[in-house]
Structure formats: C-alpha cells, structure tokens
Specification:
Length: 213
C-alpha cells in the first residue's frame, strides 16, 4: 500500500468516526468485552450498567446501529443454528471495529457533561405549581433515586472479581457516588421548598400578590 493509499484509507476511517453518533460507540463499547451477544443481550447489559452513568439506548436504536456498524465492517454477526427454537443473530466486534473504537476512545475531547434534570426544571417553574404537589414530586424523586442506587450496587456486586470488568467497576463506583450526591441534593431541595412554603400555608397569597378589589 502506497503512502497515498494509506492516507486515503485513514481519511475514510476518520470520516466514519466523525459521522457515527454516540449510540454507535456505546454499542461498540458493549461489544468490546469478550463474547458474542444478541441485540437483546446488549440492551439488557446497557440497562444494568451503561444507563447509570450515560444512558441506555432503545432496543430499536441498538438494532439500527448494529446494522450500520456491520455495513461499515465494525461488527460481524452469525445466525444461530436449528438447535435453537428461535433463531438469534449474535454480534461480535471485528478487528476493524476494535481499532476504530480504540481510536475514538483515545482521541478527542470529552466535552462538558450535559445535565437535563426534569425535576429541577419543574421546581424552576414552581410558581405555577401547588407547593404540596411540588414537595411530593421531590419525595418521589428521592424514592426513585434510592431504587437506582440499589441497581448500581447490584451491578457492582455482579462485576466484583471479574477481571475484564475492572474499568466498568470504576465507572459504576462513580455512579454510586453520583447517586448518593443526588440524594443529598434532593433532600436539601426538599428542605428549601419546606422553608419557602411551610406545610399548612398552602393557598396563602404572598405579600406582593395582586388581590381583588
């Protein structure tokens, strides 16, 4: 291969890398661990690990990306034989896919984290809400977060002692600390709301509110 051909090949791969969405890299990342996996298995793994610190793509997104990645030669697939009641297609990361994933993981900036917090947005609009209902929303969020924290700890327990999951364990420990911080922030928010509108004062007009007459 000439230098010119090699350069063109590199440029083509860079174009592929630049055009792939985050979901594609997430799917490739799930496939970077040993073994073959079906789209359904990838979804289950994303739900029990990836979603705690990034997000979990829908099953339709996973299959769409698997088809795209196979077209690019980044993954290979094989269909199960007649011994299985329902035929399944299993996917594996190809050497080309591992090379691209490694390049993507090792290069480029991480960028700022993006926070879209539905609860905080509703609290920001709290002047349109009933104070008791708003506090109830925060309480519901605390309960939900406690459940998510339990899920993180279950994932950590499953990964415990598995050598190839050492880095996922680091990410999950970060997720555990993040959920603990979220609980602390939510409880502080609940206290702030209680101070702003003490229970039992709902329905009272603030001093500067317009009145009839």
């Amino acid at each position: 291969m000439t230098n010119r051909q090699f350069s063109k090949k590199q440029d083509a791969r860079q174009d592929d890398i630049a055009q792939l969405p985050p979901t594609a890299w997430a799917v490739l990342g799930l496939l970077s661990f040993p073994g073959e996996r079906t789209g359904y298995e990838l979804k289950k793994w994303a739900d029990s690990s990836l979603r705690f610190f990034y997000w979990s793509p829908a099953i339709s997104q996973i299959y769409a990306e698997l088809r795209r990645l196979e077209d690019l030669g980044y993954v290979t697939s094989s269909r199960s034989g007649p011994e299985e009641v329902r035929a399944k297609r299993r996917y594996t990361l190809s050497p080309r896919g591992r090379e691209a994933l490694t390049e993507w993981a090792d290069t480029g900036g991480t960028g700022p984290s993006v926070l879209k917090h539905p609860l905080v947005l509703r609290v920001w609009l709290g002047h349109l809400s009933d104070p008791a209902r708003l506090r109830a929303r925060v309480t519901e969020h605390i309960t939900c977060t406690e459940g998510e924290l339990a899920g993180v700890r279950e994932a950590l327990a499953r990964a415990e002692g598995v050598t190839q999951w050492a880095h996922p364990q680091v990410a999950l420990r970060w997720a555990e600390r993040q959920h603990l911080a979220e609980l602390e922030l939510a409880r502080a928010m609940l206290a702030d709301l209680a101070e702003l509108h003490p229970p039992g004062t709902e329905g009272q007009l603030p001093p500067d509110a317009p009145t009839d007459g």
